[in-house]
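User: Some background: our group keeps a shared notebook of sequences we're curious about, and every so often someone picks one and asks for a predicted structure to add to the entry. Today it's my turn. The entry only has the sequence so far, pasted here. Could you supply the structure so I can complete it?
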Amino acid sequence: MGSRKKYGAAFYLRLAISLGLILYILNRVGLEALWDTIRTANLSYLVLSISITPVLILVSSWKWHVILAALGVRYSFGGLFWLYVVGYFFNTVLPTNVGGDVVRAVILGKKTGKNPQAFSSVFVERFTGLTALLLMAIVAFLLAIRKLWDAWIGLALLLALVGYAILLYVLLEPKILKWMGAKIPVAFLRKLIAKTEKFQSATLALKHKKAALVFAMANSLLFYLVAVFNVYVTTLVFHPGITLADCFIITPIVLVITMIPLSIGGIGLSEGAYVFTFTRLGLVGAVGLSVAFLMRAKALVAGIVGGIYYSFMGMGIKEELSGPAEMKTVDDGDVQGKVDYFSGFEDVMRRKKSPLAKYQDIVIGNGSLWELCKYELITALWAACPGVIGYFSRQVFYRFILGSIGKGSVFGKNVTIRHGKKIFLGKRCVAEEYSMLSAQGDEHSAITLGNEVLLGRGTVLSTRNGTISIGDYSNIGAN
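Assistant: Of course. Here's the predicted structure to add to the notebook entry:
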């Protein structure tokens, strides 16, 4: 069988639209005019503009934190801030159909064990923001209707309002989903609707949390006021003649146009919207395009930071989205049909992943580049080191690749460690050379040794989605 294509026709169509719009806008503005605008950038305003990005994320994280508290979910404010930055990574850096909001909800649900509330919190956070944005866009459009009137702008606002009304109606009327669940014969869609009903129930629970909803709306207005200031300062980087009133008109119109799902990540639409609004307000198109490019560059930097943080988290988002698969199907070898795999190694090797990702799953247990670097460096330097230096070094450094090591525990040469963060040693344990400790399996797999446990030369302790616990003063040998 052939491998599945990574992207479908819709992706390539949106990619073509993005590229076509960018080329059209560059041709219209002119590369020379664009370069003349960029090279005169004010560095002081540039630094100020860059510093506004984390402020926007802080304001959004604040709203998310309050909504989660209203839903009965406790999570640190700092943790939500970094999850928001991770969302930037999936929105701006990766050309993926898995949006940043979905990623935030999936990770939060995984960490809290409350998936409906996690998705509901992200939806309400975004929905209140959309409400505030549409209100601001309508006001801005009416205030500058003589300058901004265009059939396409009017159509974009109309479509946004119709989509908003439909979404609001479906959200507030549970009978619609129940009717769809009863009428649709496709099992996959019925399962999806059932999950959506849980999310809807969690969202409707906020109807009785009026204080949280009022705060969410107030916070959304605050966010867009900061967004207006962001556009104002970013424009000052290239052109001193802008006013806050102009930016109050520009910002919501641009954001509404960027929401239209015609291009990848709004690329091309956003740039075109900036050029259009700047030109209609009597400003230079090259300034609008320069502002658009700087805005995208700031989001890209935030996305790169989010990607680095995400790599440290060690979570594979594709696996989280697809969910656990307890039973696998095999059609070769001695065992056929639906079976549990005999080892984590066999399970990983059958998955469609890069060789590096498979190695990380087998040896480290997650996709964290930081954990991989630690493991490779420490084992390369000290795993085969002989004598007293080797014993001492492993005693000191192996604690960085294991779950915990009690005082006085030592390791012989060439001890094999797999999924080290799920291995816990008590005091004065000894793992002699060529022994193996492997805690492969899901997050519940673990190996726990009590105090003064001796593992003889060549001993193998290995889990398969289970746990091994050995009591104090035990000796285990390979023979």
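Suggested note for the entry: Confidence is low (pLDDT under 50) at residues 1-5, 322-342. Residues 115-143 form the longest helix (29 residues).
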